[in-house]
Each structure stands twice: as structure tokens, then as C-alpha cells.
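Dear colleague,

Thank you for sharing your sequence with our group. We've completed the structure prediction you requested, and as agreed, I am returning the results in plain text so they can be pasted directly into your records. Please verify that the sequence below matches your submission; if there's any discrepancy, let me know and we will rerun it promptly.
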Amino acid sequence: MLKNHYLHILLLVFLSLFCNCFPQTIYGVSGLIKTPTTEVSANGKFDLGLSYFYDNKNSNRVTPNFTTQYAVWINIGVIPRVEIGLRFATTEEIIKTQKRIGGFRSFNIKGKIINENEYLPSFALGIQDALGKVKTFNSFYGIVSKKIPIPFNMFFLLNLGYGTDWFDFNDRQNSNYRFQGVFGGIELIANEFINLMIEYDADFFNYGLEIHYKNIFFLKAFLINGSHLGSTLNFSFYL
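Please find the predicted C-alpha cells below.
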């Protein structure tokens, strides 16, 4: 099992050597590991990404049910301060039992309402998994982000948000929401090559490492709940 994890990571590293990347979450929005930040894709920018990870199938922190998942997504900066995304994800369980690549489709949208200044943080609102009957990853959230400079030309990016199920229009039939309650994270922008991050996704603590070089490649490796290894890769270009 562990050997397969490393093979997937090595494959993503190889692919990343040929792309111009921009950081995204495993859900295909601009952010840390699972949680979003106030950042949005630039107007006219098109991001294509893929990820391999373990996620909690039922969003229950008491009796979690982690399963291997694979996802691909596109994310587009449609107008200034607004990004939209489409994502398709499947699980190892679906592939093995149903002998097909079926899974979950989701639509995401996020808009930056206020830009950061010297004193105040930026602010954004977003809806994750907004359409369809089964909203496995649904959340309506607000989030603030602030950069804090520290010595040696480094800085922290602080993020704090709150999520609800307000945009589930199916009478709360789905219990597998994401970001229900307080979530957030801290990212250390160490240099032009490496960023470190820790986040709380309203259920678990996750830890990650970003590797990039002048936007030539970008790779994110992380641990979900401190123990489940995963990785994310995406590349970007302007339409």
C-alpha cells in the first residue's frame, strides 16, 4: 500500500516538470490542502489539475471512513476577483466494485469581496459543490486572509473561515458536508522554492509541503489527519 503511495507521488513529480502551476486544493479551488483561501485565479486564467489522496468518506470525525480518491478539475478566472471550477472525483472502491470510473461531480464558485491592505485582511465568499442532488462536498463559506511579514524575506499567510450548509437546497438530505463550522490554516512562504502549511478543515488537522520554481512547476504533498499521504498537481495558462 505504501509503495503505491510513493509511485503516485513520483508520477506527479514527473508530470510537474512540464507545467506552469498555481496552487489549488484537492477540491479544485485556490487554497491550502483542503481549505480555501481568499485567493482567486486571475481573470482569463485556466487551471487544470489532478490529485491523489485519502479523504473521509462520511465527514464524521468520530468514526471516520477514509478511502483512496482520485480527482481532476478545471478552474477558470471568469472575471476579476471571481473563479469558477468543475471537478470530477472517483474512489478506489467505486473502480473495484463497479468496474467503471464513476464518481462525484461538483461545481465551485468563489469571489473575493475585499482586497487586503496594510491593516485589514482580504475577504472572500464561496460555494463548494453547489449543484446536483448529492452534494457530498457541499459548503457555503466566508474566509479572511492576511499576510504577515517576518525576517529573512519570509511571511506567514493566515486564513480563518466559517462554513455552513445554507446552499443545500435538497432539505439537508446529505450529511457529508465539508467545512461545517470554523476552519483555517497557516502557510509559511519560506522562499521561492518551498512553502509549508498546516490547516484545520473543521474535522481534522492536515500538514503540507509545496515545492515550486518560478512557476515552472508546482507540487503539493500532504498528510490528511496527520497520517494519510496525498499529492496535488496543477498547471495553468491564459485563455
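Summary note from our side: The first helix runs from residue 2 to 16.

Kind regards,
the structure core
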